[in-house]
Backbone:
């Protein structure tokens, strides 16, 4: 038997059929559903008189539109009627089609990409999809996970399958260890800085190497979350003992005999020695610094000890134009040291960085400190109700509140500002989210992507600092 | 889905790389539970001078005269010419819905983000990949005083501009077949119900925890 990559194994174990031209029908084990990309799919099902193929393969929760402020009154507390209708529509669709949903007031509600692993609903070896590009997150469990559009949401609901072609394979290897203070977020931003936002287009990325093996599962979730920002629909990490320990005992995890069988299978979920990738990219872990984005694409990123780059130094004209446009939008001058950039708001949250380890890292920086006077708002938005409860049990909420941060209810929040949490035009934000696109956090808002510790440090100092 | 026929349309040149789906259709319009009506908010933040929200009368909003979609030359354009990595970011299918609702049936770029590329085909939009040099030449022609019109022949897989040599392009055979025939993916997949059930039975035996 020839040596296989992890991607080969995940792909082949889900093949229902393959055409001569390579077009394949693959089986989907887990479908996560949220309120923004599903209503038109349910509508399509109804119009065609179809039912979900396998109801229990679906798990739903509202996350994008939910308020993060006091909401104990339920869905009626959503002020924006259009947002409210979208959440009500999800609730109704899940009731109509008997799909399990963690509704807004359920303690298990949260960002889909936080609750999947947290519940053990996304397991090693699974195919996981969701109408959301950050579905790549679940690859951290050793799963093949990718985002889909609404037509495909309907397709999965109706058939439990998707029509796909196999991607090319890429290994991104981070050799050696990173320095203390350098997190999974910094690693993935450094990777995107190296290969570019289209560097992974057409590929499925396996992250490997010493620095990746050292990462906790939560760190790997952060890493795989941003595979899509490198252009790759899917990013994943091989299963190891940490993965198995993480899954054990979670509500949806296998139990009894199934658990033993599952472990035996999961232990095969790695790339065989000698297997070949279509492309290999290698980074030196020790050379990675804490990262800060300066522009309007995640590839526009530098180390915190560097300065905003100069478009005049870029040979490619299209790229240089993009840099100039980004500098103008961001209100920055080339050559400005990153540490001289002051921020107006700070956002710690999103499917990238809202898990308990993220909150602990931020709390460690914030403890006994005060948010700087130039920072108008510093938000902490836990990724799920369970993360929030855990943080409160550890007293993290008190640390944040005493330091001047706001402690909120779980949801996507200011990562994409579909709810009331947003930047005003011209405001600058240190954000632990995943996209610094124009207008992403509010029209005219300026986003700098950073790790939770860096975001907390920026809140305390009022600008970026070496950590 | 509507069948994709050969047709001729005006080319609108959007000279930016890495255009993301947040720019194509900003998030406030994603709150709709419908599939249609996104066209007036296509490229909303670039197209209008004010801040757009769902429910506004878009015909009364101030237009940004510097944005290419508002250029009188490109009114009624059906072909969008743009740069590399078009459609990156969010998986929102509202992006192709908005492009389609506006009237675009063809996009031409050197490269696309994967999810967006895939979403286009599901909505009868053809995303054509052309070499960067050819894209550059098309930009030069599309930005002249007289708008450029071109003909797209999907069957022959070529673009025809005036009397010049036709420009060939690649397209996945399965996707071409679906576009030409207006085929619905779900209907196609449901022809394989037996295979899906057989897979489930096999898999439930190998990995019972996935079905418990």
Residues:
């Amino acid at each position: 038997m020839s040596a296989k990559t992890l991607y080969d194994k995940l792909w082949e174990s889900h093949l229902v059929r393959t055409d001569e031209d390579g077009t394949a029908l693959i089986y989907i084990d887990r479908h996560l559903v949220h309120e923004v990309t599903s209503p038109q799919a349910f509508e399509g099902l109804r119009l065609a008189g179809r039912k979900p193929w396998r109801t229990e393969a679906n798990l739903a929760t509202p996350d994008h539109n939910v308020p993060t402020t006091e909401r104990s009154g339920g869905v009626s507390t959503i002020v924006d009627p259009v947002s409210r209708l979208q959440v009500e529509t999800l609730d109704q669709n899940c009731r109509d089609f008997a799909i399990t949903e963690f509704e807004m007031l359920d303690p298990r509600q949260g960002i889909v990409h936080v609750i999947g692993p947290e519940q053990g609903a996304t397991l090693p070896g699974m195919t996981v999809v969701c109408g959301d590009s950050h579905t790549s997150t679940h690859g951290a469990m050793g799963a093949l996970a990718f985002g889909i559009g609404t037509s495909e949401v309907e397709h999965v609901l109706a058939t439990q399958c998707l029509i796909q072609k196999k991607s090319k394979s890429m290994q991104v290897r981070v050799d050696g260890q990173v320095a203390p203070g350098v997190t999974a977020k910094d690693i993935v931003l450094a990777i995107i800085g190296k290969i570019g936002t289209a560097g992974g287009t057409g590929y499925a990325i396996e992250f490997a190497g010493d620095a990746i093996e050292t990462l906790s599962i939560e760190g790997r979730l952060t890493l795989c979350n941003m595979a899509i920002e490198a252009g790759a629909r899917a990013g994943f990490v091989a299963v190891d003992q940490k993965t198995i320990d993480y899954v054990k005992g979670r509500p949806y995890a296998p139990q009894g005999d199934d658990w033993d069988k599952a472990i035996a299978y999961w232990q095969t979920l790695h790339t065989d020695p000698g297997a070949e990738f279509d492309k290999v990219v290698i980074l030196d872990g020790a050379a990675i610094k804490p990262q800060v984005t300066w522009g309007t694409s995640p590839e526009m990123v530098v180390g915190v000890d560097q300065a905003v780059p100069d478009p005049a130094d870029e040979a490619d004209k299209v790229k240089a134009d993009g840099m100039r446009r980004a500098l103008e939008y961001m209100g920055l001058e080339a050559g400005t040291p990153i540490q001289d950039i002051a921020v107006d708001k700070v956002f710690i949250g999103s499917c990238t960085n809202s898990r308990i380890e993220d909150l602990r890292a931020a709390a460690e920086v914030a403890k006994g400190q005060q948010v700087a006077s130039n920072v108008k708002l510093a938000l902490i938005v836990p990724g799920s109700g369970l993360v929030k409860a855990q943080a409160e049990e550890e007293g993290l909420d008190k640390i944040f509140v005493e330091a001047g941060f706001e402690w909120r209810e779980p949801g996507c929040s200011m990562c994409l500002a579909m709810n009331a949490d947003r930047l005003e035009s011209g405001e600058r934000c240190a954000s632990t989210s995943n996209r610094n696109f124009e207008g992403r956090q509010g029209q005219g808002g300026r986003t700098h992507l950073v790790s939770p510790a860096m975001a907390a440090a920026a809140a305390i100092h009022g600008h970026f600092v070496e950590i | 889905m509507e069948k994709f026929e050969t047709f001729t349309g005006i080319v609108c040149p959007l000279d930016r790389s890495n255009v993301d789906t947040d720019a194509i259709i900003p998030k406030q319009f994603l709150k709709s539970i419908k599939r249609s009506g996104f066209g007036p908010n296509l490229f909303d933040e670039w197209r209008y001078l004010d801040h757009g929200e769902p429910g506004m009368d878009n015909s009364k909003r101030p237009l940004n005269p510097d944005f290419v979609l508002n250029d009188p030359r490109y009114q009624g354009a059906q072909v969008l010419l743009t740069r590399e990595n078009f459609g990156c970011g969010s998986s929102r299918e509202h992006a192709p819905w908005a492009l389609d609702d506006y009237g675009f049936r063809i996009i031409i770029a050197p490269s696309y983000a994967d999810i967006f590329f895939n979403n286009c085909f599901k909505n009868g939009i053809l995303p054509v990949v052309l070499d960067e040099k050819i894209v550059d030449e098309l930009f030069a022609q599309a930005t002249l005083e007289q708008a450029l019109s071109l003909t797209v022949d999907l069957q022959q897989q070529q673009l025809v501009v005036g009397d010049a040599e036709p420009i060939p392009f690649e397209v996945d055979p399965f996707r071409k077949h679906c576009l030409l025939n207006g085929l619905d993916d779900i209907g196609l997949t449901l022809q394989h119900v037996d295979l899906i059930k057989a897979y489930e039975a096999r898999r439930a035996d190998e990995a019972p925890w996935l079905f418990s």
